[in-house]
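Model it.
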Amino acid sequence: MNKVIITGRMTKDAEVKQTSNQKSYATFSVAVDRRFKDQNGNRGVDFINVVAWGSQAGFVAHYFPKGASIGIVGTLQVRTYEDAKGEKKYITEVIADEIDFVGSKQAEEKTEEAPAPAPVPEEKPQKNYPETIMDIMQPAPTSPEQVDFGSLPFEL
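Modeled.
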C-alpha cells in the first residue's frame, strides 16, 4: 500500500503549469514538523514536494498562499532522470489525491494571542437512578406465605 498523509504549511505559492496536452498541474512544497525534538529541544522540519493535478492544481493555487496550513492525502512517487553531466538524479514527491484546509494562519495567531478561557466548573448530573443493581433488588421470599400471588400477571 502506498498512502501518505501530511499536514504542514505552504513554503511558497504553488506554481501552476500545463503539460503539452494542456493538462494543468501545480507544484509546491510543504513544511512538515517532525514528530520529535532534538537534543536542544528544537523540532526539525521536512520540506515535502507535492504535485496536484487537474482541478486540484487551481484549488491549491487559489486557496493556499505561502504560510497557509494544508492537509494532503496522496501517494509517494520517486522519479529518476539524468542531468547534463549524465548523473542519475532522484526526485521524491507526493502526488496529491485529496487536499483539505487544516486551519488559517490568522485564526492560529488569534488563538495564540488570546488568553485561555476560564475553566467552566463541570456540573454533576442529578442521580435519578439506582447506584447498583443491589439497590433495586428485593430479597427473595423465604417461604410461600411471603409471596404476593395477587401481583402476578397470570393465574395459578
